Amino acid sequence: MELTGAQWRKSTRSSGNGGDCVEVADNLPGIVGVRDSKDAAGPALVFGSAAWRAFVGMAKAHDPA
Fold it and tell me: What is the distance of C-alpha 37 from the center of its chain?
């Protein structure tokens, strides 16, 4: 899957300490890329937009914060 043009971002809940974060690129039509911030040149997982929205919705619904 081609992720050229992806604009990667970290969660606003990520600490400012650097390292151990997940980055998401949700600016591409129909897909969402997910990668490890420590390895920006490494592999990325790619999800369909609807699947990603469902995942985020479930994660928010079960957030203890």
Answer: 10
Q: Which pTM was predicted?
A: 0.82
Positive or negative, the CA dihedral 11, 26, 34, 39 is: negative
- Structure tokens, 59: 């994660």
Among all chains, which residue has been given the structure tokens 């995942």? 55
What residue spans define the domains of the chain? 21-61
Q: Are 27 and 5 in contact (CB under 8 A)?
A: yes
pLDDT digits (tens, 9 = 90+) for 9-44: 987 777 666 667 899 999 999 999 999 988 989 999
